[in-house]
Write a structure and sequence with these properties.
It is built from ten helices and nine strands. By secondary structure, the chain is of the alpha+beta class. The chain folds into two domains: about 10-105, 2-Layer Sandwich (Phosphorylase Kinase, domain 1); about 115-340, Aminoglycoside phosphotransferase (APH), C-terminal lobe (Aminoglycoside 3'-phosphotransferase, Chain: A, domain 2, Alpha-Beta Complex), CATH 3.90.1200. It is globular, with a radius of gyration of 20 Å.
Length: about 350
Amino acid sequence: MSITGIDIERVTDWLDRNIDGVAGPYTFDLITGGRSNLTYRVTDAGGTTVVLRRPPTGNVLASAHDMVREHTIISAVGSTAVPVPETLGVCTDENVNGAPFYVMSLVEGVVLDSAEAAADMSIDQRREAGEHLIDVLADLHAVDVDEVGLGDLAKRTGYVERQVRRWTMQWEKSKTRELASIDEVGRRLAADLPEQAGVSIAHGDYRFGNCLVDTNAARVTGVLDWELCTLGDPLADVGYLGVYWSDPGEEQARPNDPTGIVGFPTYAELLERYSLRTGRDLSNIGYYVAFSSWRLAVISEGVYARFLNGAMGNQEIDDETLSAFKTGTERLAEDALAALSRPR
């Protein structure tokens, strides 16, 4: 039996020698895969389960899928009030599995990545889950980066400026057509750079879809997917959450988010709660929402371009999904423009 991304014999030997409390043989079940890092549920001979995470297979940029860095971040954050899996070990020897990987504890919970996923929650549970989501983000942004050993993770200042420059260049490299909205947003973001609101651990992809939630207790039990984490402006995370968040009764902004159904707080309520907890001024949050929407638009175009150019190897994609990347770029760019135009 073979499992994509797992050398069963060598990984079994490594797990036996390096992870306490488990013993082979193991079963490996892919939890998430595709164009991002691959995550496996690993169950040992006695039924004990851990989680293994490795880069995607194929020709990928190592810097974008740095397992050792991700392991370091989760280990550091695990010493704080932010709920994350416990890291159990990291393998840097590529002879074992073709790429570095790390192992962490299994955290129980539901990924609320659709309205359907939250359908069985009560109205009160949805509100409490939304409030806890923003509370966890506030706790993350309160972490002293030096105290947890992440002071050298990245540059501390100029985060938004570097990001705007980076994604402007990325658009020029990956665009398949001209989009005036992308160009206009990029110009306006560069011309009105905000003063950075302190230095925090910035998750980079913080939303319900990257968290595990105990739906009965309405609590976030684990924050996942730290591959985009860096040091930066905490308001970038808050603005990014606004790209995904839909107020109750609104059309869902993103199909992989549960908000928009009755019970979840409004985005304005999240902002108020975050501001009260952190003391940060959110009067310019529209800038950060626009920046995040624009960045996602460029990313969407990049995926679209790679598929058009056959650079995604043997990963198949249907016409409807391909078209969704194209139209998604356009919609996200228009949303970014609208966010910039809202009065402060």
